[in-house]
Design a protein that fits this description.
Layout: H1 2-11, H2 13-39, H3 41-51, H4 56-68, H5 70-73, H6 80-87, H7 90-95, H8 101-133, H9 139-166, H10 175-188, H11 190-199, H12 202-218, H13 220-244
């Protein structure tokens, strides 16, 4: 199974280069933020806007977190593995290897998890450094947001892998879990969204937005539990499909 994971990582070597550039860019933005917040114009801007009653600190925090989330979102490229395997007919070779179907399927999930863990580790390290020298960012809330987003990405990626085994084209597979997540959000927050659309004022939008941010910051354990449950179910279903379709894993 280790060999399969190494093969998958090698197949994604181009994405790894892009991944490295993204991490470098995010680190550069983080350094510029720290320098500006401590010694540059950002410090004066935050103080001035807060005195005027505008929560510029929240805007800055969201902007910084957006850049920090980029390494996590890149995990979605795991779907490219299925394209590479199909083009090279690797499934025929994999079926002859002395590795069980369960382990061959598990290797795909572990590859996705390794990418995600690497991005999360980098982001957590940057959050720790930035929060230690910044008056705007709190490490606990940054870490909570990062864990929540990581859980969401893992949930989506697990479903994508399952759909790929089910025969859905890798280019279309991401739309299904993202669309389902959007519909679920509308159902759960229907009253808030309805109030937002009917009132049509910035105050309602701001309140709704802050509720979402607070959920990501303070309820990361819920997202983590859902991610583990979805990943487990997706793995079981993927193994079942792979066994039914001999030579697809």
């Amino acid at each position: 199974m280790k060999g399969l994971i190494i093969k998958d990582i090698y197949c994604l070597r181009k994405q790894l280069t892009t991944y490295g550039f993204i991490i470098f860019g995010v680190a550069a933005v983080a350094i510029m933020f720290v320098l500006s917040e401590r010694y540059g114009n950002l410090r004066e801007t935050v103080s001035g806007m807060q005195e005027a009653g505008f929560d510029i600190a929240a805007v800055v925090k969201i902007a910084v977190m957006f850049f920090m989330l980029l390494p996590l979102v890149c995990t979605g490229q795991i779907g490219d593995l299925f394209n590479y395997d199909k083009k090279s007919s690797f499934y025929k070779t994999a079926a002859s290897l002395p590795v069980s179907t369960e382990k061959r399927v598990l290797s795909k999930f572990l590859t996705a998890l390794l990418f995600l863990a690497a991005g999360l580790a980098v982001d957590i390290a940057m959050a720790a450094v930035m929060s230690s020298v910044s008056d705007i960012l709190l490490f606990s809330k940054c870490a909570g947001t990062l864990v929540s987003i990581s859980a969401c990405v893992m949930t989506v990626t697990s479903i994508i892998i399952m759909l790929d085994y089910a025969g859905v084209k890798p280019d279309y597979a991401p739309f299904f879990p993202i669309g389902a997540g959007f519909i679920l959000l509308v159902i759960v927050k229907f009253r808030d969204i309805k109030s937002l659309l009917l009132n049509d004022d910035f105050g309602s939008f701001s309140a709704f937005f802050h509720k979402l941010i607070n959920a990501f910051e303070c309820k990361s354990y819920i997202f983590a539990i859902v991610a583990v449950a979805v990943a487990s179910v997706s793995y079981i279903v993927s193994v079942y499909i792979a066994k039914q379709k001999k030579g697809v894993a």
